[in-house]
Amino acid sequence: MNRKINWIGTCLGGRYRIEAILAQGGMSHVYLAEDMKLKGKKWAVKECMPLEGTLTSFLEEAEMLATLQHPQLPQLVDYFTTEDGKGFLVMDYIQGPTLQDLFDQQGRDLPVAQIVSIAFQLCDLFHYLHTFQPRPIIYRDLKPSNVMLNEHDQVRLIDFGVARHYERGKQSDTVQMGTIGFAAPEQFSGDQTDARTDLYTLGSMLYYLLSRGQYAYLTQKLLGHIRSDLPEVLTTTIQLLLQENPQHRCQSALEVKMRLRSIYSVPSPLQPEMLHSDQLNLTTSSDKLIVIGSLFAGAGSTFAAISLARILHARQIPNAVVEEPTIEPDLYMLLYGDIKAPKDYAFSHHLVSEQKLSTAASWTDGFTTWVPVHPDGLLSSWHPADTLKLLHTIKKPIVIWDVSTNWQEAAVQELCHSADEIVVLLDASPGKCHRPRSRALFELFMMYQKRGKKVHFVANGNLPGQYRKEWLDALPTAPLCTMPEISRAEVMQAVMKGECIQERPDILERLSDALSPLLHEILPASMWERRASAPKKSWFSRFKQNA
């Protein structure tokens, strides 16, 4: 058993003179120390209690912290061991109260706006950790006492003592740890923890803060029954996070942020005067991620994505069309990219892998920004985290993400968990809809729908008479609308002439009328009420004139 030593007044590591204790717990003590070499410099020195008499966990934490480079995470500057086998981590000293301190000081009643802002920042931090390469990091111990706030209410996440790297294929953790009241069920049941474990702890902490100090596992009450003044989407998101089965929770930190973003305009943490009131700006946020794809090859998701984009363009609504990097390239060719792409345009894999965002030109046509895949396909490996990184670079109110038929790709499923709307194109063909893969995809779409996602089916063509009933019986729900019939020959002829057929006034009007049920679903009322203007001449038409 480790003997407790009073380090106050001693010099550790030949350099750090311990002045006071900052925090203590079962796994570690944290001290305030003065640097004897850099006079006046203060550090936080953490004494780690090794598990089972070894320094393995200490060395793992030190190595993990040394790789992290994020302004809101603790920066490790040194670590050492003593002759009697104790380990010490030296980290930057963060001045400011913990969230628990602030919560108690305010009578356990923080403004909802401030709590949501903290949640936003924690989602960003978890996204960084969960997509960390080469192995994701699972924090596992989120609680108010491990969250610090600076004078600008910027979150700092501290104490990585029970964090671990996620190991794919491993069935359980070596050691089950966490704080009762906030930890996820799998942290004590012997199952492996993953990113969804951190999301459960986020839900537990939000429940605790919003219920003014009650624990979800003790009350066994829905948050909405305790606080009737909270918006339903906030309470249902927390309810989703607290599901016992990880499969039934939100699946990524970005999904949580997207859900909260859909109802809140959250002030920046650099605007503290806006955070200390309950004046939440409830909005009909126009920020939307629309994932669009086909049930099977040739159903027309790319054509539908371009059509939606040009309808939005006609209504002067900024939008972007992104071609999922893992699919077979098509958009670049349809847009005459060899001639019309900006000279210094950077493809999606460059934006993510080479960080060219600050110097790359966007490819815009009126109110639409095009983000196609390189015509030769991916030039490097692509991970699910890269898809989310690419999404963060697209700064448009509406993003239309074309995934073609790649619904079962890990990157696409991660994207669907974060989407506001999912649009599925399908042919009017009972035979194709009865295929085993189609049935499996229908089950996937229904799973998204059960988890609160809006899934819309759009038919690409129609069936007459008796065959229509057979086709509709093969679908989970009837199509919301039907794409107008435009011959493929007419479309390809327009492309060969350098035209975008969706910009022809007659075609645009037909598309707008046919897709109006979908547009009513995916557009806020304020946007839908905008009258479409006559399309301006685009580079398609200018190219035609110069041909």
From TrEMBL:
SMART domains: S_TKc
Catalysed reactions, semicolon-separated: L-seryl-[protein] + ATP = O-phospho-L-seryl-[protein] + ADP + H(+); L-threonyl-[protein] + ATP = O-phospho-L-threonyl-[protein] + ADP + H(+)
Kinase found in the keyword field: yes
Alphabetical UniProt keywords: ATP-binding, Kinase, Nucleotide-binding, Serine/threonine-protein kinase, Transferase
Pfam families reported for this sequence: Pkinase (PF00069)
Residue ranges of every copy of the Protein kinase domain listed in the record: 16-264
Domain of life: Bacteria
EC number: 2.7.11.1
Name of this chain's protein: non-specific serine/threonine protein kinase
PROSITE patterns cross-referenced by the UniProt entry: PROTEIN_KINASE_DOM, PROTEIN_KINASE_ST
Gene Ontology MF annotations: ATP binding; protein serine/threonine kinase activity
Top-tier EC class: transferase
